[in-house]
TrEMBL record:
Organism field: Wickerhamomyces pijperi (Yeast)
Signal peptide from the UniProt entry: 1-20
Pfam families per the UniProt record, alphabetical: DUF5110, Gal_mutarotas_2, Glyco_hydro_31_2nd, Glyco_hydro_31_3rd
Every DUF5110 domain range: 792-839
Keyword Hydrolase: yes
Cellular component, GO annotation: glucosidase II complex
GO molecular function terms noted in the UniProt entry: alpha-glucosidase activity
Keywords assigned by UniProt, alphabetized: Glycoprotein, Glycosidase, Hydrolase, Signal
Protein name: Glycoside hydrolase family 31 N-terminal domain-containing protein
Pathways per UniProt: Glycan metabolism
Length: 908
């Protein structure tokens, strides 16, 4: 689920055509006061070239790792607004810049429930901990009002602060790379009294919607602070490509917005709209990565309010303009040699992705809805009859009584614990949906109100709105006290989960979606914990909600990693949840756009994502469904899902040859689970991506910077087919390495475009020469049942006659890996010798790890002529293993090595 389409059909939109209305529900920039005012200001100030902002040099204080002072907004000699700022030099060569507003002399009406200060807490949710400061910086104050700060390990970066025009320039090797306020769009709308109406306007400002909102249902917004936006322009010098700032159904390399809408970040329940759009979606990660050959930078805009971002391509530069409705300016500039390092530095600040339970990397079978216990168990059994592995079956809202969460409809699910126990017999997990809206008048919402944990209206009453169950309250998960309440609902002596050990949770509708609200969400003057308007922290609500669910499951299971799927997310969400791209259409264009969307999620360090396989709305053709499975097996989160009005489409329904092809695809995912799990470990440990855009592997090749329909997963180059009727695909080989077809091992080589046969049964996937891929090749019904299966290692020998790979293994479900109970090992091939050695930690790993097959791919199998056997050495002992040729590869069968130790195999 879901969208609110059904509800809107029935109620809100009777006056307007349903299909016409979708886009019109959401504000354009010119319908949004703060966006329109800042775009206007930018246009005017470019003409007048006036400058109102400068640093009061007397106010500067140079601390250990922090430079602070006052930026003044000067109307004239007598009227100045003080904007305290701070520059922090962080570790990993990052610079953090914050600007607040001194509101001390402003008298907010004493009756107001609200905090007077600007909201300054987004970082507390986004960052994994307090950022680490780096003491290493040097200041040389020069004469003409410039302050030069040098920083970095060898002081290779510099920050130039132009005090008179207030501009910040980050340089590397003496060349300017990132310039803040390059075009003087910096703007802080200072606080002013409502009864003054429109005082203190600069000549370049407009008063459009300062104290009112003229957009549709937003008209009731009380705007108690009036205009209070923040904005700044940031230029990336010599960078033609910028990426990131999900979630948008758009290209990976972001587009120029000069003559379109800006990209908007405002978490909303959006549905069924066109692809290639800058409209806001369900989640927001305000990290932009800019890349050019030799250097990458990142800009992290730490703000949870409604935000618009303009992008302008200007010669070889990209110029951006960041506009948020309120809060403080809080941004971090990252700089490094490669885009992967930017992702890692951002991960060091905000936390890496959780290490998921292994089962959650398997196949998820979902639809709205599996109707009752019998339906669930029949689907489960049928998967086994067709020998299609799967790990998780899902329940959408209909399992409840009248969509009251934490209840089960007794007619359909008389004994949920019994059902879950049956699923557990074959290692399967149930995921059930729990949303943040709680229907009025039932025990859970009564308790919520009793504990005073609901979102509040601007008058301090419990906020009520419409959602699935009708009139509802919303839990305020900004309030730390909500955690205990939430824990109780999930506890193992609650009626909901009982003592089941295989129940995990789907958090949907947590933008939050409010059917009766403006832009499908809460009014902006709703109040959250701490007496802030949700105007300030709206985009963070979804994160606080799924984090509360994570906390509740963690306490329920004590030592098991919770699996949470969330629709809404913010920077930091990667620490506790997976995401999916929401309510797709069953159309080829949506299959196609899923790839750049998920690559973007990887760039911004939230790799655990997927799109609904098959598409959510409508009925996919058999061909589309099949191609979607073939693409979906590469999504880090692999789930099929369908709308309640769509026909059943479990993989066996299409019939042959489709069912066979889908089965093969799902089984390929299962064979590659060791690879996916290893990639997730490396992501959780080092901040690596899981799906790797080509330009991450080849950051100096400009011809790859825009490629968004191919990617790597470890050593595999993947190009899913996303065109109807395709019999071939064009694949772009990024380099001159050998690439081996993953099924028949035939070689393609030579940088550039290649045409590859891709009939329906074919997934274009290649082992890149120089890599070693771990697999488990035996079919089992679920990942848990594969636990003790032996490994296959595919050694794809590269042009240098070498190959390398890694493998991570742990118990797949607990936190014991945190105390060393894991194996992380690496493999190398070098000119006829294969060896393995443990990499680190793992004091607590016990047990042996067996290999049933080593498969060596070489460009010309003749190089193995003259070898007769393999000589294996481990722990001082030696023995022999037989070799054979198979389809142009060399097989070493059952070499009897134990991967948990060091070993070596020589061809002799
Ligand atoms: C960030 O800096 C810390 C301290 O210097 C270092 O330990 C860490 O490895 C760095 N992280 C990255 C991703 O470079
Ligand atoms: C300075 O600007 C303020 C705000 O616009 C205005 O109220 C005041 O009259 C101005 N003073 C002078 C001396 O121009
Ligand atoms: C319930 O959870 C607690 C820990 O929160 C655990 O000690 C207890 O054994 C669990 N009970 C059941 C029936 O699973
Ligand atoms: C291997 O598969 C590819 C792609 O389908 C095809 O083009 C090629 O001819 C095949 N090679 C062999 C040796 O069968
Ligand atoms: C590779 O191994 C062969 C013997 O198997 C040897 O003749 C040759 O010199 C080796 N090449 C390199 C580069 O070590
Ligand atoms: C060799 O290739 C054929 C055709 O792709 C395949 O059916 C067969 O299973 C392969 N042999 C092995 C041992 O993998
Ligand atoms: C991956 C994918 O197809 N995503 C689409 C899902 O549906 C939303 C609209 O609800 C589209 O915007 C996405 O492009």
């Amino acid at each position: 689920m879901k969208s609110w389409s059904i509800f809107c059909l029935l109620t809100v939109l009777l006056a307007q055509g349903v299909f016409a209305v979708k886009k019109e529900l959401f504000k354009r920039c010119d319908q949004s006061g703060f966006c329109q005012r800042n775009r206007h200001y930018a246009k005017e100030i470019s003409q007048t070239k006036n400058n109102y902002y400068s640093i009061d040099t007397d106010s500067l204080i140079f601390g250990q790792s922090v430079i602070s002072g006052i930026i003044q907004k000067s109307f004239n000699e007598t009227f100045k607004v003080n904007l305290p700022f701070e520059i922090q030099v962080l570790e990993n060569d990052s610079i953090r810049f914050k600007v607040d507003e001194d509101r001390s002399s402003f008298d907010l009406k004493s009756t107001s429930l609200l905090e007077k200060k600007r909201y300054d807490e987004a970082w507390k949710y986004a960052f994994a901990q307090e950022p680490k400061l780096s003491a290493k910086y040097q200041v040389s104050d020069s004469l003409d009002g410039h302050i030069a700060v040098r920083y970095g390990k060898s002081l290779e970066y510099s920050l130039d602060i132009d005090t008179a025009s207030f501009q910040l320039t980050v340089s590397f090797d003496g060349e300017p790379q990132v310039v803040l306020n390059d075009r003087t769009f910096f703007n802080v709308e200072h606080i002013r009294a409502k009864d003054q109406q429109v005082p203190n306007m600069l000549p370049e400002e407009t008063d459009f919607d300062t104290f009112r909102d003229s957009f549709k249902d937003s008209k009731r917004d009380t705007l108690p602070f009036g205009p209070e936006s923040i904005a700044v322009d940031v230029s990336f010098k010599g960078f033609r490509h910028v990426y990131g700032i999900p979630e948008h159904a758009d290209t990976m390399s972001l587009k120029d917005t000069t003559s379109s809408e800006p990209y908007r970040l405002y978490n909303v329940d959006i549905f069924e709209y066109e692809t290639n759009s800058k409209l806001p979606m369900y989640g927001a990660i305000p990290l932009m990565v800019a890349h050019k050959s030799g250097l990458s930078t990142g800009l992290f805009w730490v703000n949870g309010a409604d935000t618009f971002i303009d992008v302008k391509k200007e010669g070889t530069d990209t110029q951006t303009h960041w506009i948020s409705e309120n809060g403080v300016i809080d941004l971090v500039i990252f700089i490094a040699k490669t885009p992967q390092e930017i992702t890692k530095n951002y991960a060091a600040l905000t936390g890496t992705t959780q290490l998921p339970q292994l089962f959650s990397l398997g196949y998820h079978q979902c639809r709205w809805n599996y109707n009752d216990e019998d339906d669930v168990l029949t689907v489960s059994k049928t998967m086994d009859e067709y020998e299609i592995p799967y790990d998780v079956i899902w329940l959408d809202v209909e399992y409840t009584v009248e969509k009251k969460y934490f209840t089960w409809n007794p007619a359909h699910f008389p004994d949920p614990e019994r059902m879950m126990a049956k699923l557990d017999e074959t290692g399967r997990t149930l995921v059930a949906i729990i949303d943040p809206h709680l229907k009025l008048d039932y025990p859970v919402s009564d308790e919520l109100v009793k504990h005073d944990l609901a979102l509040k209206t601007n008058k301090g009453d419990n906020f009520k709105g419409h959602c699935w169950p009708g009139e509802s309250y919303w839990i305020d998960t900004f309030n730390p006290k909500s955690q205990a309440f939430w824990n109780d609902q999930f506890s193992n002596d609650s009626a909901f989960g009982g003592s089941a050990i295989n129940l995990h949770i789907w958090n949907d509708m947590n933008e939050p979606s409010v059917f009766s609200g403006p832009e499908t969400t809460t009014p902006k003057d709703v109040i959250t914990h701490g007496n802030f308007e949700i105007r300030s922290d709206h985009n963070i609500y979804g994160l606080t909600y799924h984090q509360a669910t994570y906390g509740a499951l963690k306490q329920r299971y004590v030592n098991k990693r919770p699996f949470i799927l969330t629709r809404s997310y913010f920077a930091g969400s990667q620490r506790t949840a997976a995401m999916w791209t929401g309510d797709n259409m069953s159309q080829w264009s949506y299959l196609k756009i899923s790839l750049p969307m998920l690559l973007t999620q990887n760039i911004v360090n939230m790799p655990f994502g997927g799109a609904d396989v098959g598409g959510f709305f409508g009925d996919p053709s058999k061909e589309l469904l099949t191609r979607w499975y073939q693409a979906g097996i590469w999504y880090p989160f692999f789930r099929a899902h369908a709308h309640i009005d769509s026909r059943r489409r479990e993989p066996w329904i299409a019939g042959e040859p489709y069912t066979d092809i889908m089965r093969d695809a799902v089984r390929l995912r299962y064979r590659l689970l060791p690879l996916f799990y290893t990639k997730f470990f490396e992501s959780s440990k080092f901040g690596d991506v899981v799906l790797e855009p080509l330009f991450y592997k080849f950051p100096d090749d400009e011809s790859l910077f825009g490629i968004e329909d191919e990617f790597f997963v470890g050593g595999l180059l993947v190009k899913p087919v996303t065109d109807e009727g395709a019999q071939t695909v064009e694949i772009h080989l990024p380099d001159d390495e050998v690439y081996y077809d993953h099924e028949n091992y035939s070689v393609v080589q030579g940088k550039g475009q290649k045409t590859i046969a891709a009939p329906l049964e074919k997934i274009p996937v290649f082992f890149r020469g120089g890599t070693i891929t771990p697999r488990k090749d035996r079919y089992r019904r679920s990942s848990k049942l594969m636990k003790y299966d032996p490994y296959t290692l595919v050694v794809a020998v590269g042009t240098q006659n070498k190959a390398h790979g890694t493998l991570y293994i742990d118990d797949g479900e607990t936190f014991n890996y945190e105390s060393g109970e894991y194996l992380y090992t690496s493999f190398d091939y070098d000119n006829g010798t294969i060896s393995g050695q443990a990499l680190e930690g793992q004091s607590g790993f016990t047990g042996s790890v067996t290999v049933e097959k080593l498969q060596l791919l070489v460009p010309d199998i003749k190089v193995f002529n003259g070898f007769h056997k393999a000589s294996v050495t481990q722990d001082g002992a030696s023995w022999e293993a037989s070799i054979s040729m198979d389809n142009g590869s060399l097989i070493i069968a059952n070499p009897k090595v134990d991967l948990s130790g060091s070993w070596r195999i020589d061809l002799v």
